[in-house]
Amino acid sequence: MGKERKYCNLGIGLIPYIATFVLGIVVIKVYNFLTKENILENYIEKLISKNRFKELPNLIKGKTGYANNLGVKIFYEDLCLSDNPVATVLLINGSSETLIQWPEKMVRTILKNNFRIIRFDNRGLGMSDWMKSWSNSNSYSLNDMALDALSVTNHLKVDKFHLIGYSMGGMISQILAINYPEKILSMSTIMSSAHLFDPEAEKADSKRLKDLKKMIYFYRNKKRNLNTALKFHFKLSHLWVGSGNYVHNHEKELEKVLFEIKKRNGYNKNTLNQHKKAIKNAGSRYSKLKKILTPTIVIHGTDDPLIKPSHSKKMASLIHGSKLFMIKGMGHDFNKNFKNRIISIILPHILRNS
User: Are the C-beta atoms of 196 and 171 separated by less than 8 Å?
Assistant: First the structure.
């Protein structure tokens, strides 16, 4: 009994030391986090100061215009280096991103191989209509966005074309391949899904989603100016990286954000909610994928934190004759280290099916 009391008293005596030790670890973690954030903020500040007044290059060099889908204006760019191209490639962007986000090297490589490229701003952003009357009860779906894409090709009198779509753009591509098979020469989907909100599918990285919510809350409650916008979109472009050996061209990334703000319409703060709702409204395409006979390749990064690779694996298993390519270390972005690999997969595919 005496020994038990002795050990009990010893345990009670250790509590303040244990509490101090735990508190110390918490303080160190908080300090490291704040220091890291402060270093990042200072770096971004210097980067912005260095680049904000530089003359911006023209990131849109093709013929431009507007197509119309039932009163919704869709801005497009038409690029071609040849009078007699092999075929036309339609590029479809991911959620909340405009046509200038396509990697320049990918665009340049496709053009040099004698293809015509058409790319456009999805509704809700860029130079296309921002859908100001949008609400949860008055929303649109990916099916409407697929018709937007089709309105562009119809406007430019293109009967057949290759599809390359990333993320949400890959979802829109699937709808076009399902509903208009006679128009599609081939389909390439990158980091996409056939049912993003499938309750049985792998969920996005919860920590990254929390970081996104914090960023949105923090920047929406700050005074809006150019620096605030630049910081937000710069950090956002780094949120979905994978674990591979990443190489960033920070000045080029910042250049695109500045071009969007200074030379175009800037950023629509409602786009993310609009596109998320459009994806939800579209529902599952699992059963319809079996109808696709278009030559298809499915590309995904093994370390994608937003749309997990299992989404593409399931999609590929449902599309007859499709080929699945997993890129080790790639996240949910077009990093320099993975662009060459993506191009090396897509280019032979579109050449073979032209």
Answer: yes
Q: Is the pLDDT score of 71 beyond 70?
A: yes
Is residue 38 a part of any domain in this protein? no
Number of neighbours of residue 21 by Cβ within 10 angstroms: 11
Has residue 18 been placed in a domain? no
Q: For position 26, what pLDDT does the model report?
A: 47
Q: Which residue has the higher pLDDT, 117 or 40?
A: 117
Number of domains making up the chain? 1
Distance between CA atoms of residues 339 and 349, nearest Å: 16
198 in any annotated domain:
yes
Amino acid at the residue 58: N
Q: 328, 255, 291: which is closest to 104 by C-alpha?
A: 255
CA 148 remoteness from chain centre: 19
The predicted model gives 141-165 an average pLDDT of 98
pLDDT digit string, tens, across residues 218-248:
776 666 677 777 778 777 878 888 886 666 7
Pull the structure tokens for residue 114: 């004698």
User: How many residues are recorded in the chain?
Assistant: 354
Three-class DSSP category at 262:
helix
Question: Residue 53 in 3-state DSSP?
Answer: coil
Domain, as residue range, for 73: 63-352
Q: What is the pTM of this model?
A: 0.86
Q: How many CA atoms lie within 13 A of 224 on its CB side?
A: 9
Rounded CA separation 67/120 (Å): 10
